[in-house]
Amino acid sequence: MINRALMPPGWKKQWHIGIRIRRTLCAFISAIPLVLRIKAKTMRASEVNFLCVHKKLRSKRLTPILIKEVTRLCNLDGIWQGVYTVGKILPTPISTCRYFHRPLNWAKLYEVGFSHVPSNSKQSYQVHKYALPSRVSTRKLREMQEKDLDAVHSLLQRYLDRFDMAPIFTREEWEHWLLYKKGSVEERVVWSYVVEVTSSLLYVARSRFSQ
Question: Do domains 4-83 and 135-208 have the same CATH topology?
């Protein structure tokens, strides 16, 4: 069952595709609509944001089947361009990037198998190494509120204008992705913060992680 409250604006139910054996979900892929700007031209596209195959079935060529099916459904809606990321080199990437992880809860990440203990270290040292300071060093840092959305959205658009290729976010999309609404029953996974000086929003610092 899909929780519609968690879905971004413009989402399509048919773009959530799964393969199951009896009652067990063995593979899944999902995509969302996207407006993409390439230099001065904008186009409708789809963003494939999740793909997972059961580890015992990863040699059964389920991934190409899922990709072909989500591509077919996007084509039926008149969308012929798709955006996705992958950790391997596939022909031919339009962009590459380097990123790093900064564990916020190393013990939990180790428990679930995401992090490991280096050969020359111990668990206690890793916990100490990645421990967060008791006080925030950034002055006037506060949680983002609904009144900040227009300034944050404007700031984001000015930043993305520097690049030849970038997504175009509406205010509603930005509100969906970054603003946590108090009283929501869903588990919180995004924390958004702003720094405000003399009533001018200077920049946004975002932390995103799962508990």
Answer: yes
Q: How far apart are CA 201 and CA 192, in angstroms?
A: 13
Q: Which residue has the tokens 């001065």?
A: 40
CA 134 vs CA 108, 114, 126, 143: distances in Å? 19, 25, 17, 17
For 122: left if phi > 0, alpha if psi spans -120 to 50, otherwise beta; the answer is beta
Token reading at 125: 């040292």
Report field, pTM of the whole predicted structure over 0.90 = no
Enclosing H/E stretch for 205: strand 200-208
Segment 129-142, tens digit of pLDDT: 999 888 888 888 89
Q: How do the domains of the chain map onto residue ranges? A: 4-83, 100-132, 135-208
pLDDT digits (tens, 9 = 90+) for 54-81: 999 989 999 999 999 999 999 999 999 9
Fold of 135-208: Aminopeptidase (3.40.630)
CATH code at 4-83: 3.40.630.30
